[in-house]
Amino acid sequence: MMKKNILLIRNYLDELYENPRCELEYNNDYELLIAVMLSAQTTDKSVNKVTKILFSKYNSLDSLASADINDLKEIIRPIGNFNKKSLNIINIARSLLDNFGGIVPKTHEGLECLSGVGRKTANVILGELYNIPSLAVDTHVLRVSNRLGLANTKDVLEVEKKLKKSFPKESWVKVHKQLVLFGRYNCKAIKPDCNNCKLQDICKHNKKLTKVS
Ligand code: SF4
Q1: Where do the domains of the chain lie?
Q2: Residue 13 and residue 184 in contact, taking contact as beta carbons nearer than 8 Å
Q3: What's the CATH architecture for 3-20+135-212?
Q4: Which of 87, 96, 144, 179 is least surrounded, with the fewest CB atoms within 10 Å of its CB?
Q5: 28-66, pLDDT tens digit by residue?
Q6: Ligand 1 pocket check: which of 180, 193, 197, 204 to mutate, most ligand atoms within 8 Å of Cβ?
Q7: What topology is assigned to 29-130 in CATH?
Q8: What is the DSSP letter of 134?
Protein backbone atom coordinates (compact mmCIF):
# COMPACT_ATOMS: atom_id res chain seq x y z
CA MET A 1 0.00 0.00 0.00
CA MET A 2 1.17 3.52 -0.79
CA LYS A 3 2.81 5.46 2.01
CA LYS A 4 0.37 8.32 1.64
CA ASN A 5 -2.54 5.96 2.28
CA ILE A 6 -0.87 4.57 5.37
CA LEU A 7 -0.47 8.13 6.60
CA LEU A 8 -4.13 8.84 5.89
CA ILE A 9 -5.14 5.78 7.89
CA ARG A 10 -2.85 6.66 10.81
CA ASN A 11 -4.07 10.24 10.93
CA TYR A 12 -7.71 9.20 10.83
CA LEU A 13 -7.25 6.56 13.53
CA ASP A 14 -5.50 9.19 15.67
CA GLU A 15 -8.37 11.57 15.06
CA LEU A 16 -10.92 8.96 16.16
CA TYR A 17 -8.95 7.20 18.88
CA GLU A 18 -6.12 9.38 20.13
CA ASN A 19 -5.63 7.39 23.33
CA PRO A 20 -7.01 3.93 22.57
CA ARG A 21 -7.60 1.67 25.54
CA CYS A 22 -8.11 -2.02 25.97
CA GLU A 23 -11.77 -2.45 26.92
CA LEU A 24 -11.24 -5.54 29.06
CA GLU A 25 -11.33 -4.74 32.77
CA TYR A 26 -8.51 -6.05 34.96
CA ASN A 27 -6.53 -5.22 38.07
CA ASN A 28 -3.30 -7.11 37.54
CA ASP A 29 -1.28 -9.12 35.04
CA TYR A 30 -2.92 -12.53 35.44
CA GLU A 31 -6.43 -11.05 35.39
CA LEU A 32 -5.68 -9.51 32.00
CA LEU A 33 -4.27 -12.79 30.72
CA ILE A 34 -7.35 -14.72 31.82
CA ALA A 35 -9.68 -12.04 30.46
CA VAL A 36 -8.00 -12.10 27.04
CA MET A 37 -8.13 -15.91 26.96
CA LEU A 38 -11.85 -15.75 27.85
CA SER A 39 -12.53 -13.16 25.13
CA ALA A 40 -12.09 -15.68 22.28
CA GLN A 41 -15.34 -15.90 20.28
CA THR A 42 -17.17 -13.42 22.48
CA THR A 43 -17.28 -9.71 23.29
CA ASP A 44 -15.21 -7.76 25.82
CA LYS A 45 -18.45 -6.53 27.34
CA SER A 46 -19.61 -10.10 28.08
CA VAL A 47 -16.18 -11.00 29.45
CA ASN A 48 -16.21 -8.00 31.80
CA LYS A 49 -19.54 -9.16 33.22
CA VAL A 50 -18.24 -12.61 34.13
CA THR A 51 -14.74 -11.57 35.26
CA LYS A 52 -16.30 -9.11 37.70
CA ILE A 53 -17.84 -12.09 39.50
CA LEU A 54 -14.92 -14.44 38.87
CA PHE A 55 -12.17 -12.16 40.19
CA SER A 56 -14.10 -11.01 43.23
CA LYS A 57 -14.79 -14.59 44.26
CA TYR A 58 -11.31 -15.87 43.34
CA ASN A 59 -9.03 -12.97 44.16
CA SER A 60 -5.61 -14.64 43.94
CA LEU A 61 -3.74 -17.02 41.68
CA ASP A 62 -3.77 -19.59 44.49
CA SER A 63 -7.53 -19.48 44.77
CA LEU A 64 -7.92 -19.82 40.98
CA ALA A 65 -5.43 -22.72 40.89
CA SER A 66 -7.49 -24.65 43.43
CA ALA A 67 -10.92 -23.53 42.24
CA ASP A 68 -13.79 -25.97 41.88
CA ILE A 69 -14.16 -26.39 38.12
CA ASN A 70 -17.93 -26.75 38.32
CA ASP A 71 -18.18 -23.45 40.11
CA LEU A 72 -16.01 -21.78 37.43
CA LYS A 73 -18.21 -23.28 34.73
CA GLU A 74 -21.31 -21.77 36.30
CA ILE A 75 -19.67 -18.34 36.53
CA ILE A 76 -18.43 -18.21 32.96
CA ARG A 77 -21.30 -20.12 31.35
CA PRO A 78 -22.80 -16.91 29.82
CA ILE A 79 -19.80 -16.43 27.49
CA GLY A 80 -19.92 -19.93 25.98
CA ASN A 81 -17.26 -22.60 25.54
CA PHE A 82 -17.22 -22.68 29.33
CA ASN A 83 -15.94 -26.25 29.77
CA LYS A 84 -12.67 -25.55 28.02
CA LYS A 85 -12.30 -22.01 29.30
CA SER A 86 -12.83 -23.09 32.93
CA LEU A 87 -10.13 -25.70 32.61
CA ASN A 88 -7.85 -23.13 30.98
CA ILE A 89 -8.29 -20.77 33.95
CA ILE A 90 -7.18 -23.44 36.43
CA ASN A 91 -4.30 -24.59 34.23
CA ILE A 92 -3.08 -21.04 33.62
CA ALA A 93 -3.13 -20.25 37.36
CA ARG A 94 -1.28 -23.48 38.20
CA SER A 95 1.26 -22.99 35.46
CA LEU A 96 1.97 -19.37 36.42
CA LEU A 97 2.54 -20.46 40.03
CA ASP A 98 4.56 -23.57 39.22
CA ASN A 99 6.68 -22.31 36.33
CA PHE A 100 6.77 -18.51 36.33
CA GLY A 101 6.83 -17.44 39.98
CA GLY A 102 3.27 -16.17 39.70
CA ILE A 103 4.21 -13.59 37.05
CA VAL A 104 2.81 -13.49 33.52
CA PRO A 105 5.74 -14.21 31.17
CA LYS A 106 7.11 -11.54 28.83
CA THR A 107 7.86 -13.76 25.86
CA HIS A 108 5.90 -15.51 23.11
CA GLU A 109 7.44 -18.84 24.12
CA GLY A 110 6.46 -18.44 27.78
CA LEU A 111 2.98 -17.20 27.02
CA GLU A 112 2.15 -19.69 24.31
CA CYS A 113 2.88 -22.69 26.53
CA LEU A 114 -0.06 -21.67 28.75
CA SER A 115 -3.46 -23.32 28.26
CA GLY A 116 -5.69 -21.53 25.78
CA VAL A 117 -3.02 -18.94 24.91
CA GLY A 118 -2.12 -18.64 21.24
CA ARG A 119 -0.23 -16.06 19.21
CA LYS A 120 -3.04 -13.49 19.22
CA THR A 121 -3.47 -13.57 23.00
CA ALA A 122 0.30 -13.48 23.50
CA ASN A 123 0.56 -10.40 21.25
CA VAL A 124 -2.19 -8.62 23.18
CA ILE A 125 -0.48 -9.37 26.51
CA LEU A 126 2.97 -8.29 25.33
CA GLY A 127 1.59 -4.99 24.06
CA GLU A 128 -0.95 -4.18 26.75
CA LEU A 129 0.97 -5.39 29.77
CA TYR A 130 4.59 -4.83 28.86
CA ASN A 131 4.40 -2.33 25.98
CA ILE A 132 6.56 -4.67 23.90
CA PRO A 133 6.02 -3.93 20.17
CA SER A 134 3.46 -6.47 19.00
CA LEU A 135 0.45 -6.44 16.74
CA ALA A 136 -2.36 -8.84 17.50
CA VAL A 137 -4.72 -9.71 14.65
CA ASP A 138 -8.21 -10.43 15.91
CA THR A 139 -11.45 -10.57 13.93
CA HIS A 140 -11.74 -6.75 13.81
CA VAL A 141 -8.14 -6.16 12.75
CA LEU A 142 -8.47 -8.88 10.10
CA ARG A 143 -11.64 -7.41 8.62
CA VAL A 144 -10.53 -3.77 8.65
CA SER A 145 -7.10 -4.59 7.21
CA ASN A 146 -8.67 -6.41 4.27
CA ARG A 147 -11.30 -3.76 3.65
CA LEU A 148 -8.70 -1.00 3.62
CA GLY A 149 -6.30 -2.96 1.42
CA LEU A 150 -3.67 -3.18 4.14
CA ALA A 151 -3.82 -6.92 3.49
CA ASN A 152 -5.49 -9.25 1.07
CA THR A 153 -5.71 -12.53 2.91
CA LYS A 154 -7.59 -14.28 5.70
CA ASP A 155 -4.32 -15.71 7.03
CA VAL A 156 -3.85 -13.89 10.34
CA LEU A 157 -0.08 -14.41 10.44
CA GLU A 158 0.26 -12.91 6.96
CA VAL A 159 -1.90 -9.96 7.98
CA GLU A 160 0.27 -9.45 11.07
CA LYS A 161 3.39 -9.41 8.87
CA LYS A 162 1.83 -6.96 6.40
CA LEU A 163 0.75 -4.59 9.15
CA LYS A 164 4.16 -4.74 10.78
CA LYS A 165 5.74 -3.77 7.48
CA SER A 166 3.30 -0.92 6.91
CA PHE A 167 3.38 0.74 10.33
CA PRO A 168 6.43 1.86 12.31
CA LYS A 169 7.39 -0.49 15.13
CA GLU A 170 6.81 2.09 17.85
CA SER A 171 3.18 2.43 16.70
CA TRP A 172 2.24 -1.27 16.61
CA VAL A 173 0.65 -1.48 20.05
CA LYS A 174 -1.37 1.69 19.48
CA VAL A 175 -2.38 0.79 15.91
CA HIS A 176 -3.62 -2.61 17.09
CA LYS A 177 -5.88 -1.00 19.69
CA GLN A 178 -7.07 1.64 17.22
CA LEU A 179 -7.93 -0.95 14.57
CA VAL A 180 -9.86 -3.00 17.15
CA LEU A 181 -11.90 0.03 18.21
CA PHE A 182 -12.38 1.17 14.62
CA GLY A 183 -13.65 -2.31 13.70
CA ARG A 184 -15.86 -2.52 16.75
CA TYR A 185 -17.54 0.88 16.48
CA ASN A 186 -17.07 2.23 12.93
CA CYS A 187 -16.09 -0.37 10.38
CA LYS A 188 -18.43 -2.99 11.82
CA ALA A 189 -18.82 -6.41 10.23
CA ILE A 190 -22.43 -5.72 9.34
CA LYS A 191 -23.43 -2.21 8.26
CA PRO A 192 -20.13 -0.38 8.55
CA ASP A 193 -20.59 3.36 8.98
CA CYS A 194 -19.16 4.21 5.54
CA ASN A 195 -21.11 7.44 5.15
CA ASN A 196 -19.21 8.99 8.02
CA CYS A 197 -15.85 7.40 7.27
CA LYS A 198 -12.99 9.54 5.98
CA LEU A 199 -11.29 6.52 4.42
CA GLN A 200 -13.95 5.93 1.77
CA ASP A 201 -11.66 6.96 -1.09
CA ILE A 202 -9.04 4.34 -0.33
CA CYS A 203 -11.36 1.62 0.94
CA LYS A 204 -11.76 -1.46 -1.26
CA HIS A 205 -14.92 -2.54 0.52
CA ASN A 206 -16.57 0.83 0.00
CA LYS A 207 -15.63 0.76 -3.69
CA LYS A 208 -17.30 -2.66 -4.02
CA LEU A 209 -20.46 -1.35 -2.35
CA THR A 210 -20.49 1.73 -4.58
CA LYS A 211 -20.20 -0.41 -7.71
CA VAL A 212 -23.13 -2.63 -6.67
CA SER A 213 -25.49 0.26 -5.87
S1 SF4 B 1 -15.45 3.15 4.12
FE2 SF4 B 1 -16.72 1.73 5.29
S3 SF4 B 1 -15.85 -0.31 4.95
FE4 SF4 B 1 -14.32 1.23 4.36
S5 SF4 B 1 -13.05 1.54 6.17
FE6 SF4 B 1 -14.64 3.10 6.22
S7 SF4 B 1 -16.29 2.18 7.44
FE8 SF4 B 1 -14.92 0.53 6.83
Answers
A1: 3-20+135-212, 29-130
A2: no
A3: Orthogonal Bundle (1.10)
A4: 87
A5: 999 999 999 999 999 999 999 999 999 999 999 999 999
A6: 197
A7: Endonuclease III; domain 1 (1.10.340)
A8: -
